[in-house]
Amino acid sequence: MSSVSQRCLCCVKYLMFVFNLIFWLGGCGLFGVGVWLSFTQAEFSSLPLSFPSLSAANLLLVAGGITMVTGFLGCLGALKEQRCLLFMFFVILLLLVLTEVTLGLVIHIFHDKLDSKAQEELKEGMKKYTSEPGLKKSWDNVQKMFKCCGVTNRTDWYDVMNGTLPSSCCSVGMEQCVDGWSEPCYQKARQWLLTNIPSVLVFGVCIGVVQILALVFSMLMYCQILCAEKHLD
């Protein structure tokens, strides 16, 4: 292999390693935010996963875990200069990018339908409020924390509570709640989520750019190693 080819391969190798290290650190960040969100929402753990903050926490944990594993494979492939590892990394990363794009499009296109389905699931779960202590505690914690009542309206409770409202729909200390909080819990929790983690969205876009660059460099490195092996033969 010529000295020029060696220098090019070395340059691509270290650039790919740097991008994958950033990618791996990004995965750690996403996973960390997911863990933080899971702990902060632990009081709501008995609610269905369609509750905005719970679904976001699980999504971040899965995305962070996959990103960490993929980034590690990329770093290892770059350092070892192994075609097998590089090809595996390229395929996994390509599938990951395609999945993210598809998921983003599905959420954007079917946004209203997904919201409606999530709200219906939460309303269905409310029916077990009086029979499941864990679910009751979760709903009470949600309503006290966000100062909200019901999924889409406080009237959601009327079928469950025989025309009355749970005490958690009102200010602390009131034994019987007559006129509860006016804001719905689904929208309030969603608003809280969007307010508290906007930086995660920007961070996600940055990770997406790093993914594209890592794809390009992995393909370049794979082609250079392949050419070098052919020259040696």
| Residue-averaged pLDDT | 78
N-to-C series of helices and strands: HHHHHHH
Biggest sheet features: none
Proportion of residues in extended strands: under 5%
The helix fraction, in percent, is: over 70%
| Structural class estimated from helices and strands | mainly alpha
E-strand count: 0
Overall form: elongated
The CA-CA distance between the termini, in Å, is: 11 Å
* Low confidence ranges: none
Count of DSSP-assigned helices: 7
Please give the radius of gyration in angstroms.
Answer: 24 Å
Oligomer: single chain
Write a brief caption for the model.
By secondary structure, the protein is mainly alpha-helical.
